[in-house]
Design a protein that fits this description.
Elements lengths: L1 H7 L11 E3 L2 E3 L4 H13 L6 E2 L17 H18 L16 H8 L13 H6 L14 H12 L2 H6 L3 E5 L4 E3 H7 L5 E9 L10 H8 L4 E8 L2 E9 L2 E5 L5 E2 L20 E4 L6 E8 L5 H11 L11 E3 L46 H24 L4 H26 L50 H6 L3 E2 L20 E2 L30
Parallel strand pairs: 3-10, 4-6, 5-13
Antiparallel strand pairs: 1-2, 1-8, 6-12, 7-8, 7-12, 8-9, 9-11, 14-15
Length: about 525
């Protein structure tokens, strides 16, 4: 046992002059008599360690919890301290072979933890693991502090335990919050209430700013310690000296104690190896704190203590919070036991009442989004392409020019129709399914597109076809691209009588028998009056 302790941080030698604090009691260890009281106090705690040779933990074949049951054992120790306060006289001190150990209350405080799958041992590892099914964790699995709290709380509320220790209540306060209304409810049927409070004081490592508050709770008379320790090595902490935490270690395997005798041999349930220590900075952030409200008469003082130690105005990093009432979560989704269909939320467009779809945004509610940006880009390219085609072919044929202009207009109208479709709200649309529910809010921030129609000057009726333009066939264009000579200078249109300087176009001689496919230059300079929406 001490060999294992030395592999951790070793036995505490009390070489510091600081006071030793153990669950609300302070000891001046410079005085030998006080130091002896420290050892007596530690020896009087219930020490629950690994055991072997017990009946198999069905449905497995495990007959020992060595190597995986330390969190269960330390939680048993914390609950054992609470039961001792409830059952035994104040100031109880363990003395081997004393008559006091034969009394029924002491025998009960030990017997309930013996490792046998019977009702007379309601807090045995066998009975605790019965409730582990809700976590889907079988024997041989390491448990977290919060899980161990729920396991033992289920056993504390069981009829076998209530028969042996009546009027002893317990509750797991999750999210580090104690509710006064729940405490009052528990005291309606119990004389004492054990509060099990799982905590997380950091992420991968403990936040050292919480350590002073943790010590404050350890130095409170209502505290029964906490369970935690190092990863995969759970310990039971009951006190401190300076920054050294004092603990009991379950990592020693002992033989299971039988239950046939009327008077149990309980010496193996009390640690007689001195005092073990660990630096508080090595503590794992996951732990569980235990508090005992001893009676309803003490509830007022107990609550004031909790408020004081959790006051955010006086405590920089409180580890526990207090509230007068529990939050009420009243959803009323098919909880009345009837077969009537659930009433969906008024703002839901979904068949699933748990999913509420937001209404699609309108132009007045939200600015341009991704869809609008895409539409603007497509509009710009379409207008540029239409104008460029018009400039190139306007010198060859009025008919072709008109056809291309009409095509550009149709493309612009199609893009505009798409934009208007997505802009329409459900209330304005005759077809409620016109809007796609697969698009996100940003995708639907669109406005109707207003695409300008390029202004193209047709060939005057009395003008002649340029001599450098030849009639071509479609087959000739498929193998040879159109060669366009860019103009040296492009002038803007200041009036309807002025026209852009036309480039020279060199085409093979052929007749136009099919629509002409032209390649458009990548960079085109546009006239200043581009976009007035007119076609001459």
């Amino acid at each position: 046992m001490l060999m294992y302790a030395s592999r951790l941080d070793g036995v505490h030698d009390f070489d510091s002059d600081e006071a030793v604090c153990i669950l609300g009691k302070s000891f001046d260890v410079k005085n030998n008599e006080e130091k002896n009281k420290v050892f007596e106090t530690i020896q009087s705690f219930l020490w629950v360690s690994y055991r072997d040779s017990f009946e198999p933990l069905l449905p497995s074949t495990y007959r020992s919890d060595a190597g995986w049951g330390c969190m269960i054992r330390t939680t048993q120790m914390m609950v054992g301290t609470a039961l001792q306060r409830f059952l035994l006289p104040k100031g109880f001190v363990y003395k081997e072979n004393s008559e006091e150990l034969k009394e029924s209350n002491y025998q009960t405080s030990v017997r309930v933890f013996l490792d046998h799958p019977v009702d007379t041992c309601p807090l045995s590892i066998h009975n605790l693991l019965v409730h582990a099914k809700c976590f889907n964790k079988p024997a041989g699995t390491w448990f977290a502090p919060s899980e161990a709290c729920h396991l033992i709380n289920s056993c504390l509320k069981s009829p076998p335990l209530q028969k042996l220790v009546p009027k002893f209540g317990s509750f797991v306060f999750n999210e580090a919050t104690i509710f006064l209304d729940k405490l009052l409810e528990l005291f309606e049927t119990n004389d004492s209430v054990l509060l099990l409070i799982p905590l997380r004081l950091g992420l991968q490592e403990i936040n050292e700013q919480y350590l002073p508050e943790l010590r404050n709770w350890l130095n409170n008379k209502y505290c029964v310690g906490f369970v935690g320790g190092k990863p995969r090595k759970s310990l039971y902490f009951f006190g401190f000296q300076g920054e050294q935490l004092l603990y009991l270690d379950p990592h020693q395997c002992q033989t299971t104690v039988g239950i046939d005798s009327d008077v149990l041999q309980s010496s193996t349930y009390h640690f007689q190896g001195g005092c073990l220590k660990m630096d508080e900075k090595e503590l794992d952030p996951s732990l569980a704190l235990g508090l005992l409200a001893p009676s309803k008469d003490d509830l007022t003082e107990f609550w004031q203590t909790c408020l004081s130690l959790s006051d955010p105005e006086t405590r920089s990093h409180p580890i526990i919070h207090c509230a007068e009432r529990q939050p009420v979560y009243d959803f009323n989704w098919d909880t009345d036991g009837t077969e009537e269909q659930t009433d969906y939320a008024e703002d839901s467009d979904s068949d699933n009442p748990f999913i509420v779809l937001n209404k699609l945004p309108t132009r007045d509610e939200e600015g341009p989004g991704l869809f609008q940006q895409i539409t603007n880009t497509v509009t710009e390219y379409a207008a540029t392409a239409t104008n460029a085609v018009g400039d190139v072919i306007s010198t060859t044929s009025t008919t072709v020019t008109t056809a291309v202009a009409n095509t550009g207009t149709q493309v612009a109208q199609a893009i505009q129709d798409i934009s208007v479709q997505f802009h329409t709200t459900p209330e304005d649309s005759d077809d409620p399914h016109k809007i796609s529910s697969n698009l996100t809010s940003d995708d639907l921030k669109a406005e109707p597109v207003r695409i300008p129609t390029p202004k193209i000057s047709p060939r005057p009726e009395d003008s002649e076809i340029p001599t450098n333009v030849s009639i071509i066939k479609m087959n000739d264009l498929r193998d040879e691209p159109v060669s366009v000579t860019p103009p040296e200078k492009v002038e803007t249109l200041d009036s309807e009588n002025e026209q852009i300087q036309k480039p020279d176009i060199c085409l093979p001689e052929a007749k136009i028998s099919e629509p002409v496919e032209l390649k458009i230059p990548e960079v085109i300079s546009l006239p200043e009056n581009f976009g007035d929406g007119k076609i001459d």
